[in-house]
Design brief:
By secondary structure, the chain is an alpha/beta fold. The chain is built from 17 helices and ten strands. The protein is globular, with a radius of gyration of 22 Å.
Length: about 525
């Protein structure tokens, strides 16, 4: 138990570094290609000796002399001797839409001081956080209760289509000039602009979740400018983005059933059923009952699903969410359910969601006939009811999106040195994606954690994984690549948690949940 407790503490500390969106000290008008670093307004960044600034970059890279946007950038310089300096390390927490300014502190979590030989560079991708302009379409869009996710009637489906179209229209009103220039290719070109501004011959890169796809695209566009990369929770480049959502629905179904079985194992604590099936029935019965009587007037069936979705992202949340589930079923504790939902969906700022859509809706084509969405999602729902329609409506604004979709990048890793990491039951980025990335990066090695269900959990204290990251960053040494199309190294994931009898699970730190939101790929 002590080892797990340490991991949670580290996770919470990292969360603080990852998700706070600092305001950056005002700077004068910049010439393109310059970053004027100054004081960071956020206290934890100042304490970490970070400096913050802006980079002017083209809105449209086909018109580099035209309109400019500003990318917020943070930097923590290396603390090793200059003789041991290994260059700049750009970082991205995922999303798309996650703020990366705070992730600049990631280097301190690399074991054996291996992060100290790099300049760590955080940045808010275009449209995100403190970059200018930032996108916000309808703040409070997820405020509950909303229409049920499952469109069991024509009226429910029509209500969700109206909501989705309204959100897409609001994004055009807010950011019409920016929306056509929000692709992953644009973000990769911004990374290249940062490299040039820093006068770095090459970059190193550490990406989580969607950040792995951003790194894949950068390595494809600028192969000569890549030194070392770490990808944790790998996006399948062949599935962006419509098919990837359907694949994800199936993966979440598997993990949530594992969680139901875990709850059943500890029926003496939660009293929700002695079998996985019994727990599953309790879960859906409770969800259905919220349709006519939302908990506290706020949590209906959708908000219930959002709250418990995080059980599919990180097993460190299993005890907390099981306690919320049990407290509602047995005691009608609306306060706990509302808190869990608010942790899941945040305070109402929709910047992450807006940027998420701005990227995925324009990265690749989406079906142009709603009948295709209907058929595919109903078919998937039959196999995977936990997540499918919630995921579908999360992405439905792409059906109405006000900017054209492009052609996805044909990812080719060339000779890039890349360390890949994945738990084999990662629901957000299924393990098959890591195998595909491995096949496209012949200079890569893949660390697998068989049976693990946590998404993008490196540098959280698993010594087997984290020590290999440290060795790679220190020397460039990868686990030897093995023949075939499987992983190259195996690490045991953290053991599943054990609840403490008679004690309610401690509510997780808000920052931990926000950290998971940043590192997740969808929802």
């Amino acid at each position: 138990m002590r080892r797990l407790a340490v991991v949670v503490v580290v996770a919470c500390l990292m969360a603080t570094a990852l998700v706070i969106t600092p305001t950056v000290a005002a700077v004068g008008k910049l010439r393109a290609g310059e970053i004027s670093f100054g004081r960071c307004d956020e206290a934890f960044l100042r304490k970490a000796h970070a400096r913050c600034g802006f980079l002017s970059a083209p809105l449209d890279y086909t018109d580099p002399g035209g309109a400019q946007i500003q990318i917020a950038v943070s930097r923590i310089r290396h603390t090793s001797s200059d003789a041991k300096y290994q260059g700049v390390m750009l970082v991205n927490p995922g999303g798309p839409g996650g703020s990366g300014l705070g992730l600049v502190t990631l280097g301190q979590y690399v074991p054996k001081h291996a992060g100290n030989t790099y300049d760590w560079i955080g940045f808010d991708p275009r449209g995100v956080g403190t970059s200018k302009p930032a996108i916000s379409c309808i703040p409070g869009y997820f405020k509950g209760p909303r229409p049920p996710y499952v469109p069991s009637t024509d009226e429910i489906e029509a209500a969700w289509l109206e909501r989705s179209e309204g959100y897409a229209d609001a994004c055009v009103e807010d950011a019409a000039a920016l929306l056509p220039h929000m692709t992953t290719i644009d973000a990769a070109r911004d990374m290249e602009s940062i490299r040039v501004a820093l006068d770095a011959p090459q970059i190193n890169f550490y990406g989580f979740s969607y950040g792995t796809y951003l790194g894949q695209v950068y390595a494809t566009l600028f192969p000569a400018n890549v030194r070392r990369m770490v990808f944790d929770g790998n996006v399948d480049p062949t599935a962006v983005w419509y098919q990837a959502n359907l694949n994800q629905d199936i993966a979440f179904e598997k993990v949530i059933h594992i969680w139901f079985g875990w709850i059943a194992k500890y029926n003496r604590v939660y009293h929700l059923g002695k079998t996985e099936t019994a727990v599953q029935k309790r879960y859906y019965a409770a969800q259905r009952a919220l349709t006519d009587a939302p908990a506290g007037g706020i949590v209906g069936p959708d908000e219930w699903a959002d709250a418990f979705l995080y059980a599919g992202y990180a097993q460190s949340l299993w005890t907390y969410l099981a306690d919320v589930f049990s407290s509602w079923v047995h005691h009608g504790d609306a306060k706990k359910v509302i808190q869990a939902f608010r942790f899941a969906d945040g305070p109402g700022d929709d910047n992450l969601f807006a940027v998420y859509l701005a990227v995925i809706c324009t990265d690749a084509p989406w079906p142009t006939a709603w009948e295709t969405w209907q058929q595919d999602n109903w078919a998937t729902h039959e196999e995977a009811p936990f997540f499918t329609w919630g995921n579908a409506w999360f992405n439905a604004p792409c059906f109405f999106w006000g900017a054209p979709a492009g052609v996805p990048t044909d990812v080719n890793g060339g000779s890039a040195q890349v360390l890949l990491i994945s738990e084999t039951l990662d629901a957000a980025t299924p393990f098959s994606g890591s195998l595909e990335v491995r096949s496209r990066f012949p200079g890569s090695s893949l660390i697998a954690e068989p049976g693990g269900t946590t998404h993008a959990g490196s540098l959280f204290g698993n010594a087997c994984v984290d020590d290999k990251i440290a060795a790679f960053l220190a020397t460039g040494a990868l686990p030897p690549r093995l023949p075939g199309d499987g992983p190259d190294a195996i690490c045991k994931p953290f053991p599943r948690p054990v609840p403490e009898d008679g004690r309610a699970a401690r509510r997780p730190d808000r920052m931990l949940l926000a950290r998971l939101k940043m590192a997740m790929l969808w929802h």
